[in-house]
Design brief:
globular; 228 residues; alpha+beta
């Protein structure tokens, strides 16, 4: 009876921790949005007429006419280029793509366990974080994501790919009753993202076996890229 009570208490503690984690993830996303808004305000101040006039009085600048209604002001200060109009942003032609995999197997992930693909081979645009396992969209657009998750012997696994707090797709693996057997599930989605939307893979059940990631022949991976 006492052991059952202890197990019940542990389950309650785990649920409370999951609630805290979800709230913290939401707060992080809100902070990213606020940070981007502050960056935009700084850009507005840097390109305002008063700021431009002050820069002109402090340093000699060479003006090069452009094909549009504005002009580009190139400062003689090393590494400084100021634009009379427009804001800094990731260009439409800037490639965004990542590919990462787990460097070791994950043993019996619990429910709501996020997979961390800690080894990065490609991360153009810097959107993927190998510490959190999350991809945060550097720019708004249409994205493709694909993943392969292995299931170890004598058990079941189930994972979902999330955009922020919403499940977009899922996969299920099972090797019950089969010795020295591995199952692999691969999924692909095409989804429209706003800048700073988060994409990640998390378990949707308590897995009864491990998730292998062993060398090249049984590697659990996560990848994505932005369509131009």
């Amino acid at each position: 009876m006492r052991q059952e009570q202890e197990i019940h208490d542990i389950q309650i503690d785990n649920q409370a921790l999951r609630t805290i984690i979800v709230r913290q993830e939401r707060a992080i996303r809100e902070l990213r949005v606020e940070n981007q808004a502050l960056r935009n305000k700084v850009d507005d101040l840097q390109t305002s007429p008063s700021t431009t006039a002050k820069n002109k009085s402090e340093e000699k600048e060479e003006k090069i006419p452009s094909s549009g209604s504005g002009q580009i002001e190139m400062s003689e200060s090393p590494g400084k280029i100021s634009l009379s109009k427009g804001k800094r942003a990731i260009g439409t032609g800037t490639p965004i793509a990542f590919y990462a995999y787990m460097s070791k197997s994950e043993h019996n992930p619990s429910n709501h366990h996020m997979l961390i693909f800690d080894t990065i081979t490609t991360n153009l645009g810097g959107g993927y974080n190998r510490h959190s396992g999350m991809f945060s969209a550097p720019a708004t657009g249409l994205y493709v994501f694909t993943w392969t998750i292995y299931t170890g012997e004598h058990g079941k696994t189930a994972f979902a790919i999330y955009v922020n707090d919403d499940i977009v797709s899922s996969c299920f693996g099972e090797t019950d009753g089969n010795s020295r057997d591995y199952d692999s599930e691969t999924g692909t989605i095409v989804v429209s993202l706003n800048q700073h939307d988060d994409v990640y893979i998390r378990s949707i059940m308590a897995c009864t076996t491990y998730v292998p990631s062993i060398d090249w022949h049984a590697r659990t991976t996560f990848a994505g890229w932005k369509l131009d």
